[in-house]
Amino acid sequence: MRASADLGKLVLRLTLGILTLLHGINKIMTGPGAIMGLVSKHSLPPSVAYLVYVGEVIAPVLLVIGLWTRAAALVIAINMIVAVSLAHSAQIAQLSQSGGWAIELQGFYLFTAIAIILLGAGRYSVGGDTGKLN
Questions:
Q1: How many other CB atoms sit within 10 Å of the CB of residue 129?
Q2: Burial label, 133 (beta-carbon count in 10 A; 0-12, 13-18, 19+)
């Protein structure tokens, strides 16, 4: 039973980490310009846009390797709350044309991050099952 639970934690970490990292890689390649526009539109300093690299590059890498997993998942959860607040707040109570939640992808990222915060990394991680913040 424990091995399957640890394997499940690994699958959650890899799924969230890799899928989030792909967004981060795109931001590395294209720059944070679009995010700067969003934060400026909401009267935040444009420099806040650079925090997207923490939430979409550094934290996902930590998740994938399983180091400081709970803290990394918390960063991703905060990143998603900010993203929904800045770009998708009007869609929170809406359904898509196909009947799903309009922000189901953002919800998936947020709630998967929360699950990882609650579950930890598991033993298939660099930090180990009992590692600090794992």
A1: 15
A2: middle
Q: What integer pLDDT is reported at residue 68 of this predicted model?
A: 95
* Domain coordinates in residue numbering, the chain: 2-119
* Other residues' Cβ atoms within 10 Å of the Cβ of residue 81: 13
Would the pTM of this model clear 0.85, i.e. be above it?
A: yes
Query: How many CA within 13 A on the CB side of residue 91?
Result: 17
CA distance 101 to 99: 7
Give the position of tokens 């990292």.
Answer: 21
Dump pLDDT digits (tens) for 15-33. Answer: 999 999 999 999 999 998 8
Please check the confidence at residue 104 and state whether its pLDDT lies above 80: yes
- Tracing tokens 């939430």 back to the chain, one arrives at 55
